Amino acid sequence: MSSAVVSTSAAQGRPFVFDIEEAADACPQPSGAELLTEAARPPQRVVSTSKDKDKDARLAGVTTASRLAVRPAPEMVSSGIAAMDALTGGLPRGSLTEICGPASSGRTTLLLAALAAATRRGECCAVVDASDALDPQSAVAAGVELSRLLWVRCGENSPEKSLEQLLRATDLLLESGGFGMIALDLGDLPPQAARRIPLTTWFRYRRAVEHTSTVLLAIERQSIAGSCSSLLVKLGQQRNRIKKSADSRFPALAHAQLLTELEITAELVRSRQERKPVCSAEITFACKTAWAG
Predict the structure, then answer these.
(1) To pair with 96 at 20 to 30 A between CA atoms, which of 4, 127, 210, 284?
(2) DSSP code of 110?
(3) What is the pLDDT of residue 9?
(4) List of E strands, 186-280
(5) In whole angstroms, what is the distance from residue 242 CA to residue 214 CA?
(6) Is the dihedral of CA 85, 88, 92, 97 positive or negative?
(7) What average pLDDT does this structure show over 200-228?
(8) CA dihedral 169, 170, 175, 180 (to 10 degrees)
(9) Which fold has domain 76-235?
(10) For residue 144, what is the DSSP state?
(11) Distant-in-sequence, close-in-space partners of 104: CB < 8 Å, separation ≥ 6
């Protein structure tokens, strides 16, 4: 009879008897020859399950980041000013562009030039005027075709009511579609009133024009759309050129002077068309009055 090993369970205090020969048969130790045989045996092939196949099918449609194609740049259209086009490349379609600057910095000049260029291309445009400040005669003198221009006048007494009308009109215009350019003129609103436009509204506007051919242009004193704008240009004024009146009837009057030209500086603050961060770039261009010829 073979010998046995007796052990005591710590939990119940019962003796358990294990046969040594049976224990050796249950857990046999491989010999050296068997180990060599196992090492020479070719690796077994893993059979894929249905879950693995489904996972591989899902991953087949995923493109790695290293193989992503460059996002196509939006179509650029002329702003109507050659120096501005040289700085920014033009105005991007399907994007929000901000033009900001203080009074007499060239905001209206750039707005009218962009509208004139768009109407010359045969596009219908819309201007949402928060302060009812657009002068039709100046627009015609700048080359704007009024037959292709929709003028939305928000002439309420309080800036809050005007801002409310502007937002409602912009929503309707973006929903209707078909406009080559929609310009929001916020230049004459106080900055504290313009900042009341929530960032979610600008984000909604950006998404509304994202896959369209519309140029959404915002004219402001200060930038208020944040990262929702694809192009941000800051305008400033350098100096005025004034010509004294040649009328002999007013030889001694100091106010009898004629403004003939403005020198405007434009700084490119942000442009999402560049793959690298944009360095600050400035240009200076002259804007002549209609009566200066």
Answers:
(1) 284
(2) H
(3) 45
(4) 215-220, 231-244, 257-271
(5) 38
(6) negative
(7) 95
(8) 120
(9) Rossmann fold (3.40.50)
(10) -
(11) 237, 262
